[in-house]
Specification:
It is a single chain. With 337 residues, the chain is an alpha+beta fold. It is built from 14 helices and eight strands. The protein starts with a helix and ends in an 8-residue tail after the last helix.
């Protein structure tokens, strides 16, 4: 067998032709070739193959469609244009979660019981008879669709242009609630904010800061970046995280231990949990408003990014003047004792 460009892109071409001709046997052979030649392909081949596979997804039969989406995601990770690949993958993910929602409903209607685990349990004829084929395939392929969707959403340009983002997030949340199975990675990715204004109030010093956040996957990451900007920038007192702790929360690889510097609090006085996302911070007068209080206890965690393939950043745009800071402090609840 000849590996490399000719083999991989040849398999892509054969797969395209077979799928569009509704040649099931030919598609199966070409799909096997995709798997066999994938490992020897180069970045240029992946850049070409990604958009072609994405454009084909809607016509791929339900069984292999999710795997084809994962291969498309792998192409993006090797340099294919995420914006070009995202429509087919994210539309497929939305369709799969809609089918999975129907699966959960039919499972409950036909006797309930614990749902099968799509990663561990086999899809049997009995399950298909109970729920229908497409709902069952939707449920069973959710792990692959989550993986493929994340590969797209790592790109800021995709997050900014994905018009059906709220719809997909609502579907993910409903399926999670109905099934008790958490699709945390995809839900977090769909909640990521970009170029998002943030006003930060440091209660001990009475100071306030206009900031802007992008690509931050969870509040652990935000917490470290806040400490780096405000303590490291000598705006507020405290022990600043190291340059490496901050770097791994932006774009450097790996994780390093860090210690929390603040307690993150909303304008209503409620805690903003590190395990949550920046989208948990409520909007007040058109901007997300966050209060930094002293930590009630010492807490450490591995500094890094929730999404290793997603670059994050938090920029301090300006220090607010005393009068403007006082106006913002007037909008927040007092510190809780």
């Amino acid at each position: 067998m000849i590996f490399g460009r000719k083999a991989f892109l040849g398999a892509v071409g054969d797969f395209e032709s077979a799928v569009r001709a509704q040649d099931a046997d030919g598609a199966e052979r070409a799909f096997a070739q995709l798997h066999q030649t994938y490992g020897k392909a180069g970045d240029a081949e992946f850049r070409e193959a990604g958009p072609r596979l994405s454009a084909l997804l809607a016509d791929v039969p339900h069984g292999p469609r999710a795997v084809a989406a994962v291969i498309t995601g792998a192409c993006v990770e090797r340099g294919a244009d995420a914006v070009a690949c995202a429509p087919g993958v994210l539309a497929g993910a939305r369709e799969a979660f809609a089918a999975a929602e129907a699966f959960c409903e039919r499972w409950a209607e036909t006797g309930s019981g614990e749902l099968p685990d799509p990663e561990d349990d086999e899809l049997t004829d009995a399950v298909v008879e109970r729920t229908g084929f497409e709902p069952a395939i939707g449920w069973w392929t959710l792990p692959q669709w989550e993986m493929a969707g994340l590969a797209m959403l790592n790109a800021k340009a995709v997050r900014l242009t994905f018009e059906d983002r709220a719809e997909l997030l609502a579907l993910v949340d409903r399926v999670s609630e109905a099934s008790g199975h958490e699709f945390k990675c995809l839900a977090h990715a769909l909640r990521v904010l970009d170029d998002e204004p943030l006003v930060v109030l440091h209660r001990e010093t009475g100071t306030a800061y206009a900031m802007r956040m992008t690509g931050i996957g969870d509040n652990f990451q935000l917490h470290t970046l806040l400490a780096g900007a405000l303590i490291g920038g000598r705006h507020v007192p405290g022990d600043a995280p190291s340059a490496q702790e901050v770097a791994v929360c932006r774009d450097a690889e790996g994780q390093v231990p860090t210690t929390g510097a603040f307690n993150l609090v909303g304008a209503d006085g409620g805690w903003i949990w590190n395990e949550g996302t920046p989208s948990d911070i409520a909007v007040v007068d058109g901007v997300r408003l966050l209060v930094l209080d002293p930590p009630p206890y010492q807490r450490g965690w591995p500094a890094g990014r929730f999404f290793p393939g997603m670059h994050g950043d938090l920029v301090l745009e300006r220090v607010l003047g005393a009068e403007e800071a006082a106006d913002w402090f007037a909008k927040v609840a007092p510190a809780k004792g």
